Amino acid sequence: MRGFSLITALLVILLVTTLGWGLIFRILRQWEMATQVKSQLYGFVLAENGIEYARTLLPHLNLNSLLVGTDGLPCEGLSGEWRSPMSFAQSLRVDPATWNSPCDDGLPAHDGEALIPRGYQAEGGHFFLRFSNNPEETSQIDEDYIVLVRSLAIVPDRVRSPFLPSLKNPVALD
Asked: Which of helix, strand or coil describes residue 55?
């Protein structure tokens, strides 16, 4: 009888310990999700700020020189996401403070000098802009004074997920 109560007590302790660890992991996961939601919302605000920044720049820029970049040469071999400052997959993993665009076409520039070559750094995040011509025209020459702008915001995560360690950034694209 005494052996039976000892086994029962050990099983109860094991059950309570398992439930405790399960509760701890659940609380940590909820905290991680709350942090990511906050970062994602901040990313949306940064991307909108990028659009407003582009709107204030546009009247002061020469559209044709903006579309071909500071070097005046079109970039070759662009991927399908060439209208965005960088690919979405890359933006999830990149360190935004050190990223440089391999292509200068469509990056904000004035008098041959890039205005924000490494994106705009705000407190807690970055936004990157790229202007492109509308699809009805060639990519280097604007004829109708219509251009598209994409603003990509990256907010580096302070908390890394142990389940997805390669994903480092919540990203928003406007």
From this structure: helix
The token duo for 173 is 């694209």
Helix (H, G, I), strand (E, B) or coil at 145: coil
- Which among 144, 148, 143, 117 has a CA at the least distance from the CA of 132? 148
Residue-wise pLDDT tens digits, 114-145: 888 888 998 889 999 999 888 888 778 888 88
The identity of residue 21, as a single letter, is W
DSSP-derived letter for residue 139 is S
Q: Judging by beta carbons within 10 Å of its beta carbon (0-12, 13-18, 19+), is residue 138 exposed, middle or buried?
A: exposed
pTM, 2 dp: 0.75
Rg (CA), the chain: 24
DSSP 104: -
Amino acid letter, 71 = D
Non-local (6+) Cβ contacts of 118 within 8 A are 97, 98, 99, 100, 126
